């Protein structure tokens, strides 16, 4: 593994990729200071592979825009410019310090005339407040490495003040704890307990992002803690102990959380809960349907598949061998897979509502008798039913 080396952190970390180094070098060549900062430094020190490389620089945003050929002014007001380098994106943020936060969300003012240390001081946790130079030298003014060594998440500065500046940091603390397996340092934890009500003002999107990252982490139970701690009271307050989530595949976790909340009476409807958290429509549909599947208590998989679709049934019963068997068997559980289709039924004189009913009736039969899913058998079956009950055979069968 050529890209793993012992850098100046004294730990085994992944070296920054060429496209990211290129950005630092170019900034430095133009006479500015430039470092990697934030999550990528944390991950490097931990020996994890950062999923993106963010840079902090003394260059003002306009200078960054002028220096690189391909840029996107992503958050120019906050000093962030995305630089496209080697087909990848590097977020370059000008050193900035922040004024007071009167709305508990955004600083009233940002000051770009500051150095690296002030920039690091505005960051949330000691482990996220480190910078790394091109050659791997680490700037760590708040003891991030020491805290990481002890597995602790600690606020930079006074925790109560930091959480009242931006309440999202409380959710981030739990999220990082879930992702990294770290614990919250005592003062940080106590401040969260005190400042919890401030989270009510956060936007749904920001809350949802942290909730999802926690749910899909190695410690998804902490997503339940987000819900039971009061931090997500604007959406739901979970009662009782966390259900087992870590043994579930990721795609099943949200549905099981919804089911548990509904079962305990903590939410009225999974769909409503998810919509208010602004999950996308597909996620809302699937997770809410899966929660209904679980609530039904049914294990009649073919009928569940017919009524809710495979994504929802799988999310409800991800470990069921019988469900896997049904899905792999090719046995018919939806009208589209019947050996006798709409065209044939039309030829037999069906149309409109009667046609739909005939298909439902055949499907009901085939679900219990997969061996009968052959055009000849189904044709005979529907003709018999029709002779017995008339065209509205479906109604007669209930
Ligand atoms: P991830 O691996 O999830 O991307 P990250 O630490 O990189 O984690 P980002 O949201 O990408 O998180 O933020 C990048 C950096 O910006 C953080 O490491 C931290 O230094 C700073 N930061 C982000 N959000 C906040 C916040 N709400 N308050 C203070 N600093 C923050
Ligand atoms: Mg990041």
Give a written overview of the molecule.
This protein has 398 residues and is an alpha+beta fold. Among the domains are: 152 residues, Beta Polymerase, domain 2, CATH 3.30.460.10; 61 residues. It has 20 helices and 13 strands. The strands form 4 sheets. A 7-stranded mixed β-sheet has the order 5-6-7-4-3-10-11. Strand 1 and strand 2 form a beta hairpin. Helix 7 runs antiparallel to helix 10. It is elongated. The termini are far apart. The N terminus is likely disordered.
Largest sheet: 7 strands, mixed
- Provide the list of bound ligands, each named once: adenosine-5'-triphosphate, magnesium ion
- Find the CATH topology of one domain: Beta Polymerase, domain 2
Strand content: 5-15%
Helical content band: 40-55%
Please state the second-level CATH architecture of one domain: 2-Layer Sandwich
* Rg estimate, integer Å: 28 Å
